[in-house]
Design goal:
The chain is an alpha+beta fold and about 160 residues long. It has one domain: Alpha-D-Glucose-1,6-Bisphosphate, Chain A, domain 4. It has three helices and eight strands; from the N terminus they run βααββββββαβ. An eight-stranded antiparallel β-sheet has the order 2-3-4-5-6-7-1-8, with helices on one face.
Length: about 160
């Protein structure tokens, strides 16, 4: 039986025009400010990174004392509205992160939706249950709080990581 498709979703409102919120997320180097310090996240792709469809970003992080190299590609790019990055190389069988930006009164609703699958069959399922689901919750909680701090946002919804779908 194949590993289930899992989903993480976070939404929050920021008091910025959609274009400004989008511009912050479209700068790959802002990922460092949105990633927990305990992951020792570092972008390896040299500056500047022109973000557009087909752009790739390479980075490294450390999880449970293990260095993990990761490469993603921007597979969809709608300036000011949404973009999708997909893992090309990394720890998951599938990792697809959709970022959407919707104008709302007084600012922008930012939505992060990640669809992912674990590798390694039964071993991956066990790792997800024991470590990965909790780790991803912590990472996306940190990201949400960092957006609040950096962009003056506030949470609107919170969906659990690891729910099948």
């Amino acid at each position: 039986m194949p590993e289930p498709l899992r989903r993480i979703e976070r939404c929050q409102h920021v008091p910025l025009p959609r274009e400004d919120a989008f511009a912050f997320f479209a700068d790959a180097y802002n990922l460092e400010a949105l990633t927990p310090p305990w992951l020792h996240f570092r972008i390896l792709t040299p500056r500047p990174i022109p973000i557009e469809e087909g752009a790739t970003i390479e980075y490294v992080l450390t999880t449970h004392r293990l260095p993990v190299r990761w490469r993603t590609e921007i597979v969809e790019w709608e300036p000011g509205r949404r973009f999708v990055d997909r893992q090309v190389e990394g720890p998951f069988r599938l990792w697809e992160h959709t970022h959407t930006f919707e104008e709302q009164q007084g600012g922008t609703l930012i939505r992060d939706t990640v669809l992912y699958r674990m590798p390694y069959g039964v071993l991956g399922a066990i790792a997800h249950r024991v470590l990965v689901a909790r780790d991803l919750e912590r990472v996306f909680d940190y990201r949400r709080d960092a957006v609040d701090r950096l962009l003056g946002g506030r949470r609107s919804t919170l969906a659990a990581a690891g729910s099948g779908g």
